[in-house]
Amino acid sequence: MRFPLHVATDMMRWQLRNWWAGNKRVPIVLMLEPLHTCNLACIGCSPERYTGDLKDRLPLAKCFEAIEECGAPMVSVCGGEPTIYPEIAELIEGIIERRKHAIMCTNGILLDRFYRKARPHKRLTVNVHVDGMRQTHDFVVDREGVWDKAVEGIKEGKRLGYYVCTNTTVFRETSVDEIEEMVAFLSALDVDGILLSPGYHYEKLAGQDHFLFRDEIHEKFKHILELSRRYPKISSTPLFLEFAAGLRDYPCTPWGNPTYTPKGWKGPCYLIEGQYYGSWKEFFGGVDWDYWESRQDQRCHNCKMHSGFEPSVVRKLGESPRDILTMARWQLADVRNASSRHA
Ligand code: SF4
């Protein structure tokens, strides 16, 4: 089974409960940024995400309030770099106590420190950012040695019994051959999932040549879709990969991954800083979801981010029995110790 049974059933229960209640817009994963402090300054990352002052972090009580108000069954703790957050172990414990699933997204540099403070749990995923093999990754994060540290953290996490996944942003510099090399390498480390998402180009990033335009995304993701048939550890859903490859279309579902930060609830989505809202109610009732769902904004034209469109896969699933079958087969596939189909 691709995702552990307790994760799949919790997600299904949440969807059914909302469907029964007649809720049209359902948050699925809360993107919780408890701090904007980072120990890296990656290319393309907004300066606020790494120059943030640690004293401006969210207090634990605010994090838990956001988790409860939003209600999503999954909480992705990102930032900034969450391993720097002094209360990270308490935050993860609090998420687990609330019977949610925690995903801790990290660059891996301080994972040894995290492993000393936290404990493995079936409701915790450690998600390590890996943007390619050594040279590309260290270029993207703008520091030598980070790839080695991340790989060390993955190996140690697996040894200690954590559920360890990886997350890759595909840039213009990332060749398809390198993606295959990386996927084969990570599969051999027996990671529990490999998520691949395109870094896309929008106006604010003009002048930065690392991000992909829509046609370039389609080209790269046609290859990645084919790779996913040979490397079952790739955990992006087949329907999302078809979308990223330009073989199907979806409206956006920006409310699927709402973002809470030290500045408040960020609308409309994880990527675009339109406005910050003081309360969940103001945010959920205040964003013009019809407008953002339609992708008519210029900043949405090249966007194929998993945070906007994996929730669309879930939302639109009920409309096609064929898609339901594809997803059921995909979820039920045995991916334990699967290095590759041709290994
Ligand atoms: S298309 Fe992308 S940029 Fe636009 S609202 Fe959706 S996730 Fe945000």
Annotation keywords:
single chain, 343 residues, alpha/beta, TIM Barrel, 9-stranded mixed sheet, 9 strands, globular, binds iron/sulfur cluster
Descriptive notes:
This protein is α/β, with parallel strands linked by helices and 343 residues long. It has one domain (5-332): Aldolase class I (TIM Barrel, Alpha-Beta Barrel). 42% of the residues lie in helices and 14% in strands. It contains 14 helices and nine strands. The chain has helices at 5-21, 48-51, 60-70, 88-97, 111-117, 134-140, 146-160, 176-188, 214-230, 238-244, 280-286, 289-293, 306-316, 321-332; strands at residues 29-32, 74-77, 101-106, 124-129, 163-170, 193-198, 259-261, 264-268, 273-277. Strands 6-5-4-3-2-1-7-8-9 form a nine-stranded mixed beta sheet. Strand 3, helix 5 and strand 4 (124-129) form a beta-alpha-beta unit. Helix 3 (60-70) packs parallel to helix 4 (88-97). The longest helix has 17 residues, at 5-21. Iron/sulfur cluster binds next to loops.
